[in-house]
């Protein structure tokens, strides 16, 4: 027995999202039913709903920044109880058997983790995301949202927050470290907040100085325009870690030249086409270039606890369900500071 729930879905590629219903499975042994309170709008929702990343499944209910409250639990659930505040991020299952799953790095599951939406459960069922009143998920793939972060500003942490926390933690951002965040958008603004809370000296590298006041308010110590060539001479050899949150084809040799010896440039965004760079840019400073993909369940929980402890959440603009299509256009034109969050209660109106 499935349950029909209200959702916003794209019926076909590039079609506007519209209000509809989707089916949620009956609770299995370890499932929890979550009444969703807020769902963030991630840029990847738009890429997938518009089928810009290759063929996708429709109807599509996007949303992998989900925050809500447990409404029901399956008979074998031990981690959560009705009323608990919980979140769901970018995946809702993984094989649990491969080397990466066993190592607690489910985001790199060798069988392919099950995406929260535009994905397929191992039993063949399509997955539907958070633009919906309810979701059913295995308790092992849900996160606890600590008291001290409200659910609206917590929602974007489930993708944007962990996407930045993971590389900052992995490459040891902290006191004495100089960290640059490239791009001050949905991802970048969380990078600034988290790197600052970790104790690093934080620099924003943005195309222009348009968002300088915001950057400094969010915790950056310095703010430079990459559109100004003098930035690259002034900051040469400065950073221990640079996290690139943009999906542009950056002049990589220029960015690599900003790293100290042994510094690392980490990409969390990717352009449509490959970028070129000179190996000399690595050789001349024993530098590394790396990538990072969201984070594991364990690390996502660690991130939520860290954010609660430091009073961090996303900077958000709350919208109703009927504003999703307009919000998509505004995200594409970078007209949001810094994350749209859908008030799911509006779906019942
Ligand atoms: Zn996302
Ligand atoms: Zn696996």
Note down, in words, how this protein is organized:
The protein has 349 residues and is an alpha/beta fold. The protein folds into two domains: 3-159 and 295-348, Medium-chain alcohol dehydrogenases, catalytic domain (Quinone Oxidoreductase, Chain A, domain 1, Alpha-Beta Complex), CATH 3.90.180; 161-291, 3-Layer(aba) Sandwich (Rossmann fold), CATH 3.40.50.720. The chain is built from eleven helices and 17 strands. The chain has helices at 43-49, 99-102, 151-154, 160-170, 186-198, 212-218, 230-234, 252-256, 280-283, 297-309, 324-332; strands at 3-9, 18-24, 31-40, 66-73, 85-88, 91-93, 114-115, 134-138, 143-144, 178-182, 201-206, 222-225, 239-244, 259-267, 288-291, 316-319, 339-343. Strands 3, 4, 5, 8, 9, 16 and 17 form a seven-stranded mixed sheet that branches. It has a six-stranded parallel sheet with strand order 12-11-10-13-14-15, with helices on one face. It has a two-stranded antiparallel sheet with strand order 1-2. Helix 4 crosses helix 5 and helix 4 packs across helix 10. The protein is globular, with a radius of gyration of 20 Å. It binds zinc ion (2 copies). Residues 42, 44, 64, 159 line the site of one zinc ion.
List descriptors:
Quinone Oxidoreductase, Chain A, domain 1, binds zinc ion, six-stranded parallel β-sheet, 349 residues, 11 helices, Rossmann fold, alpha/beta
């Amino acid at each position: 027995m499935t349950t029909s729930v209200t959702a916003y879905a794209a019926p076909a590629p590039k079609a506007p999202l519209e209000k509809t219903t989707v089916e949620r499975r009956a609770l299995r042994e370890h499932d929890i039913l979550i009444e969703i309170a807020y769902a963030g709008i991630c840029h990847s929702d738009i890429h997938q709903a518009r089928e810009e990343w290759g063929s996708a499944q429709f109807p599509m209910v996007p949303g992998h920044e989900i925050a809500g409250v447990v409404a029901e639990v399956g008979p074998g659930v031990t981690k959560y109880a009705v009323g608990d505040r919980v979140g769901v991020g970018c995946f809702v299952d993984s094989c649990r058997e491969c080397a990466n799953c066993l190592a607690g790095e489910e985001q790199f599951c060798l069988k392919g983790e099950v995406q929260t939406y535009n994905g397929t459960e191992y039993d063949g069922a399509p997955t539907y995301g958070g633009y919906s009143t309810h979701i059913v998920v295995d308790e092992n793939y849900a996160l606890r949202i600590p008291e001290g972060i409200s659910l609206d500003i917590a929602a974007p942490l489930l993708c944007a927050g962990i996407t930045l926390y993971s590389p900052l933690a992995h490459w040891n951002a902290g006191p004495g470290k100089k960290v640059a965040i490239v791009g001050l958008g949905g991802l970048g603004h969380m990078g600034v907040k988290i790197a600052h809370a970790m104790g690093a000296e934080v620099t924003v590298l943005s195309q222009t100085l348009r968002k300088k006041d915001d950057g400094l308010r969010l915790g950056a110590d310095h703010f430079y325009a990459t559109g100004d060539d003098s930035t690259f001479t002034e900051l040469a050899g400065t950073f221990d870690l640079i996290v690139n949150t943009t999906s542009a084809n950056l002049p990589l040799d220029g960015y690599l030249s900003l790293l100290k010896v042994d510094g690392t440039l980490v990409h969390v965004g990717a352009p449509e086409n490959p970028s070129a760079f000179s190996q000399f840019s690595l050789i001349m400073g024993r530098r590394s270039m790396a990538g990072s993909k969201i984070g594991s369940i364990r690390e996502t929980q660690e991130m939520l606890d860290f954010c609660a402890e430091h009073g961090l959440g996303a900077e958000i603009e709350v919208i109703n369900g009927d504003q999703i299509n307009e919000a998509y256009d505004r995200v594409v034109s970078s007209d949001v500071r810094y994350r749209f969050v859908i008030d799911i209660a509006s779906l019942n109106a």
